[in-house]
Design a protein that fits this description.
111 residues, 5-stranded mixed β-sheet, elongated, 5 strands
Amino acid sequence: MSIRRKGSRSITVDRVEYRWRIRKRATYDQQVFGGGLTLAVELADEPGCSLLVGLDSAHPNNLTGEPFDSITPSIVAEKIRFALAHGWQPAEDGPKFWLHLHMPQDPSRTT
């Protein structure tokens, strides 16, 4: 199953084009309990195995007041390279490839 094109963004990492997306609308867990974001990535032209990255950053629409981090293209590129180095094969058909990674903490942010 591929990710929706609507709302997805393009990114080129090491001369390969991918599409990535983070759900704009918070799930119940994300909204009420401050659950983390999930980043979805796949090849842009011929999607095969999707990459799902669980991030410990709260969703911007959470009701808990939990601080959240912006997910930038450089962070997405870093996660793609990490997944490729750890066995993700985006051109192959198969089940989704899951990773759970911690976001670097911003030292200027108070918790």
